[in-house]
Amino acid sequence: MNGISLTPEQLKKNNLTSGHRACMGCGESLAGRLALNAAGKNIIVTQATGCMEVFSSSYPDSAWNVPWIHSLFENQAAVAAGIEAALKALGRTDTRVIAQGGDGGTADIGLQCLSGMFERGHDVLYICYDNEAYMNTGVQRSGLTPTDARTTTSPPGEESWGNQRPKKDLPAIAAAHHIPYVATATVGYYRDLEKKVQKAMSIRGPKYLQIHVPCPLGWGYDSAQTIKVAQLAVLTGLYPIFEMEYGELTAVRKTPKRRPVEDYLKLQTRFRHLFRGEGSKEQLARVQAIADENARRYGLDER
Amino acid sequence: MAIAEAVKRCRPNVISAYPITPQTHIVEDLAQMVADGELKAEFVNVESEFSAASVCLGASATGARAYTATTSQGLLLMAEVLFNIGGLRLPIVLTCANRAVSSPLSIWNDHQDAMTVRDSGWIQLWAEDNQEAADMHFQAFKIAERVSLPVMVNMDGFVLTHAFEPVDMPEQEEIDAFLPPFQPKYRLDPANPLTFGYLAEPDKYMEARYILHRALDNALPVIADVAAEFKRKFGRGTDPFVEGYTLEDAEVVLVGMGSMMGTVKDAIDEMREEGTKVGALRLRTFRPFPKDAVRNALRNARSVAVMERAISLGNGGILSNELKEALYGAKTMPNIGSFIVGLGGRDVTTDTVRKVAKDAANMAHCTEFVDLRMELIAEGDR
User: Fold this and answer.
1) Within this chain, domains B2-234 and B242-381 share the same CATH topology
2) Domain span at residue A93?
3) CATH class held by domain B2-234
4) Domain annotation covers residue A166
5) Concatenated DSSP letters for chain A?
6) How far A96 CA lies from chain B's nearest CA (Å)?
7) By Cβ atoms counted within 10 A, which residue in A225, A257, B37, B314 is the most buried?
8) Cα–Cα distance measured from residue B345 to residue A238, given in angstroms and rounded to the nearest whole number
9) What is the number of domains present in chain A?
10) pTM score, two decimals?
11) B242-381 maps to which CATH number?
12) Does the model's ipTM exceed the 0.90 cut?
């Protein structure tokens, strides 16, 4: 294998550059680099507290080659609104605004600020990096944790199969604001991810992009398998990839040869309890039913 | 109206607020000014005070002059953002229409809201009347932008916010000359991509807090300088830190903040006529705490009665604690009594003031609630 080394000039080309402290195989850091590079140079980024904030900005080091501000866990959408209002007031509207956070910072604690930003129509792209739990604090359950997943606060046990609630449908909540653009993407299909960021940046007004980003540490899989795991989430129908414009579904990534959910679940220790013991078959069927319902709702099986 | 007019003349670029009594008419008037094109600013109607403060945070970091107003529950909901704004050194100005804090719910005036966030890294100025409140806003933006710290202008809810008083409003050109456009030292700008709001590990956090603490201390001479310049240009203003009233030979000094100090002065005039040697000290600047000015003003006092419109539950008056800290070790340490008055809009009358003055000498190091209606308090709770 040939060694690859980047020059300082090349490093500067990345809006989120290398050398930061993310774990090996981190899906979020890869998605962050791809998404922000696709957004161009003339941007201001605001970031929720969480893994990406912590691994990229430990004083005096910064991995950011774009202007970047971290305030709190739950206010990045409001901070972005303030940045956008300031750019308008100061006549600097060529510069665009991106707010980003993890699934907890977006779907749970930051949901009110997010809804307010959408409703007021700010020209902001909000990116949610969805790794399906509070990873920064050590894998606790969030509103985007999928059914039956083990987290430290939704552990399986005699009385439980893990997280008993379905994953919150945040794209639908975003779309209910009738904003110009809502999309899901995955680090598993990076060209699609980049295209969606570019499309979002071509639209004025609020945009929401939710990117599925596997977490080797939190999900319990080999860190070399991030892309494979991400792709399997799509191929099994558990993470539908689609676009919505002004509340209407406009595009779906089809998966005509849909794989059984076991193919995805068995790679991850967070679902290990679904493969042993009495009743596990019923639980697997329960997860398969979620994929089947996604397939029906989004037409995943159609050619 | 006076406050909205004053804020308009400060030419804020971004205003963001959430309605709460008794702040509402300030932001309603500003919204109308923006709607009428009198004020060129972005007015962001948010879904909470938490977002109002966050919008101002983002706007200020981008290089805009940012303003918000709130009170009571709204200020507490902002609390997390307020600390963050302090740490980020963003020169935002906030008007706090001081109000009591729930529970029980009260929309009326006391000082519990602002007192509760006194450690957030904000400069706190406290007005006695509407003229001073208006003038403080011109100075607040100037101070904030010179020292890179946020400033909270405190004015009593209803007592000041809903009072009709003649206010002399400087001309726009005069304010433009006094308060030039905001020139941020650092801002979010793709041409110079800076990182704001970093993570500090244990080997760096303390230094950041030290620098912030020093910045507040170092703001004292700037507050004085700006007040002096304002006085030169507009011919108005008291001492920037503390205002004394018949202090020279006063044996009893009544200390407090805000609008009730007008009543205190009236009561002192009456008591002086009766031959009682009583004076007053009003704090205009509460953060940074002007220790030297307080020490100097109280150097001859024998008894100090602090009239508090807030309480640290489980301990006692907040202002008196701060005063004791400032005076500890002074050559002549006065007796300091703490008198809780006027909570939740209870009137502070000249009778209230007289009671406090009468008890001052006997109440050293005690906390007393004045004007309590004992008939509302069950035997076991007394």
Assistant:
1) yes
2) 8-298
3) alpha beta
4) yes
5) -------HHHHHHSSB-SSS-PPTT-HHHHHHHHHHHHH-SSEEEEE-SSHHHHHH-BTT---BSS-EEE--SS-HHHHHHHHHHHHHHTT-TTSEEEEEEEHIIIIITTHHHHHHHHHHT-SEEEEEEE-SSBTTTTSB--TTPPTT--BTTB-EETTEES--SPPP-HHHHHHTTT-SEEEEEETTSHHHHHHHHHHHHTS-S-EEEEEE---HHHHT--GGGHHHHHHHHHHTTSS--EEEETTEEEEE---TTPPPTHHHHTT-GGGGGGGSSTTHHHHHHHHHHHHHHHHHHHTTT--
6) 10
7) A225
8) 58
9) 1
10) 0.97
11) 3.40.50.920
12) yes
Q: What are φ and ψ of residue A42, in 5° steps?
A: -90, 60
Distance CA B364, CA B209 (A): 35
Q: Which residue of B has its CA nearest to A67?
A: B193
Give how far B130 is from chain A: nearest CA, Å.
Answer: 29
Q: Which residues contact B211 (CB under 8 A, 6 or more apart)?
A: none
Q: What is the CATH number of the domain that holds A120?
A: 3.40.50.970
Cα–Cα distance measured from residue B220 to residue B218, given in angstroms and rounded to the nearest whole number: 5
Query: Nearest chain B Cα to A113, which residue?
Result: B51
Q: Does some domain include residue A303?
A: no
Q: Which residues does chain A have within 8 Å of residue B49's beta carbon, measured at their own beta carbons?
A: none
- Closest-CA distance, A269 to chain B, in angstroms, reads 31
pLDDT value of position A7: 72
C-beta atoms of A78 and B41 within 8 A = no
Is B194 in Cβ contact with A79 (below 8 Å)?
Answer: no
The pLDDT value given to residue A1:
43
Which H helix or E strand runs over B152? strand B151-156
Give me the residue from A42, A62, A71 closest to B84, CB to CB.
A71
Percent of chain B predicted with pLDDT > 90:
96
Using the beta-carbon criterion (under 8 Å), do B62 and A53 form an inter-chain contact?
A: no
Asked whether residue A199 is domain-assigned, the answer is yes
Choosing among B11, B39, B55, which should be mutated to test the A contact, i.e. which has the most A CBs within 10 A? B55
pLDDT tens digits, one per residue of A113-139: 999 999 999 999 999 999 999 999 999
Give chain B positions within 8 Å (CB) of A82. Answer: 14, 16, 44, 54-62, 66
Domains of chain B, by residue range, sit at 2-234, 242-381
B220-277 pLDDT, tens digit each: 999 999 999 999 999 999 999 999 999 999 999 999 999 999 999 999 999 999 999 9
Question: Is residue A109 included in any domain, yes or no?
Answer: yes
Instruction: Tell me the pLDDT tens digit for each residue of A218-228.
Output: 999 999 999 99
Question: Is the minimum CB–CB distance between A111 and chain B shorter than 8 Å?
Answer: no
